[in-house]
Amino acid sequence: MERKIKRNPYTPVLLALLGMALLWPADVMSQGAGKNKDLDEKVRTFLEKRQGTWRDLNIPASDGKILYDLILKNRYQKALEIGTSTGYSTIFIAWALSKTGGKVITIEIDRERYRQALANFREAGLSEYIDARLADAHDLVKELKGPFDFVFCDADKEWYKNYFIDLFPKLEKGGCYTAHNVSSRGQGMAGTGEFYDYIKNLPHMKTTVDESGGGISISYKQ
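Now predict its structure.
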């Protein structure tokens, strides 16, 4: 005799809530966002609306959460991003900085991507935490005075090593330098292997790689 399985009508709702808990940073879910509740709600709504549409050289959401968590954990405030694209990674960085009292300088060379990023920052409610520059990072990185306590590099891969060399003196002790599309197995995108081989052997930097998403090297200045 065939047994009928009784379905719980609330299962789809519970699964949706579980998905949200995995996507959004823990402090937002557990603390109700505290004094930043309105901003958190605005950012969440924006990201939900745009989910699955970030295809123009942007990072996956899981990598955005890694950046967010690093900033919150270490209470960083002076951030630099090389390679804005249309601003997905910047939003996670700025979201975290809105809680630490910080701000990020982000650099993009493509005018159209830059304009779209500015619109995204406004819609997400994070513009005041972002100093967006339309510039060639090869030049601007050298000119920036710093200091910085957090850097995220996701630009032209063959220039990764050069960006780091320019920024190392401007990175504070205890600061964190992160770079995207890096693999500890030497299988990162062209150019990132040279960067990783260089940074992992530096005595002043302690480097690991989180390969759960697109691959992020995480290096702390000792």
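The radius of gyration is 19 Å.
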